[in-house]
Amino acid sequence: MKGKYLYFKFFSILILHPLFIGINFILHKLLRLDKNFAFSGYNYLNRFFLLSILGKKRSQAFDSLVIVDKFHNFRLLPNKFFVVSFKLSNPSNSLIKIPENYISFFGKEGPLRIGTINPKDRDSLFHCDGWESRNRIKSLKELILDRKSSTILSCPMKTPDSAGKYQESFGLVYECFRWLNDDCIFNLNVEVVDDNTGHPL
After folding, report:
1. Residues 77, 52: one domain?
2. Residues 189 and 132 in one domain
3. From 35's CA, which of 82, 83, 94, 107 has a CA 20 to 30 Å away?
4. Are residues 104 and 186 in the same domain?
5. What is the 3-state secondary structure (H, E, C) of the chain?
6. Residues 6 and 98 occupy one common structural domain
7. pLDDT digits (tens, 9 = 90+) for 32-62
């Protein structure tokens, strides 16, 4: 147990060294640890290293993204399905590619998603079937935005079952890392009416 403790203690520092792969296996030999344990330690700490370095670099590429249509107003009946469409633009001179999967510490998917914000991760009042969860509308999988180009994204919604005025904001989140800047937020204002006058404004 002492050898394992020393292994992780030193390896957590040595992982930042350019030669940390070789150092890892030299260290596991000196501490007489079995090969499977050493590889397991290398695997998880290596993923953590990639998560912090590569994740930061990739998320910076998304900072040029802009949601053009920031405000959407509707007047609808209760329990009514509707669609919010907005333009996502790349005004930069760099190609932006959003692959389906990103590296994460536990090997799980960590894509760019549309989620509730202000406050972050709240359960949405407009959640409907087809969403990934109550605070995540969809993942932007295999989205490629060329230089100075844009695309239209559509989000299904459903009005609450009670009349009233409802407001909510949605933004782009690079899952497991951070929310993107305020240029990647759109706001929804919905008046739910209980008569037959409900219609999009």
Report:
1. no
2. yes
3. 107
4. yes
5. CHHHHHHHHHHHHHCCCCCHHHHHHHHHHHCCCCHHHHHHHHHHHHHHHHHHHHHHHHHHHHHHCEECCCEEEEEECCCCEEEEEEEEEECCCCCEEECCCCCCCCCCCCCEEEEEECCCCCCCCCCCCCCCECCEEEECCCEEECCCEEEEEEEEEECCCCCEEEEEEEEEEECCCEECCHHHEEEEEEEECCCCCCEEC
6. no
7. 555 554 445 545 555 555 555 555 556 677 7
**Domain identity same for 123 and 111:** yes
This prediction has a pTM of 0.68
Domain CATH code at residue 82:
2.60.40.10
Tell me the per-residue pLDDT of 112-163, one tens digit each, with 9 for 90 and over. 899 999 889 999 999 999 999 999 999 887 778 888 999 999 999 999 999 9
